[in-house]
Specification:
The protein is mostly beta strands. Helix content is 0%, strand content 49%. A hairpin with a 4-residue loop joins strand 4 and strand 5.
């Protein structure tokens, strides 16, 4: 199963060289969902209008429900040079 989440990517420093670290916050504001497994997966598409990258992160739930907000830091494999936007945010879980 999957539900939509909002995605907010932010380059951690505008002055870092290409492939700088990006912080991505996934925000879920739907009804309470309690997955049957403790690991869920977040995914999104990031783009600066020229380059695009699909990201996928496993996450171990600290409680029993899908959290309202989770942040991941990662090193892109593409060179983002402009403002990064996020789309197609999803959280995948086992019902």
């Amino acid at each position: 199963m999957a539900v939509n989440v909002n995605v907010t990517p932010v380059a951690l420093s505008e002055s870092l060289p290409e492939n700088s670290e990006v912080s991505i916050t996934f925000t879920y504001s739907g009804e309470t969902i309690t997955p049957s497994d403790t690991t869920i997966y977040y995914s999104a598409t990031l783009s600066d209008g020229t380059n695009t990258e699909n990201v996928f992160f496993p996450y171990t739930i600290p409680g029993t429900d899908i959290p309202a907000s989770v942040t991941f830091d990662y090193m892109p494999t593409v060179s983002f040079s402009g403002t990064i936007t996020g789309s197609d945010g999803k959280v995948y879980y086992k019902p």
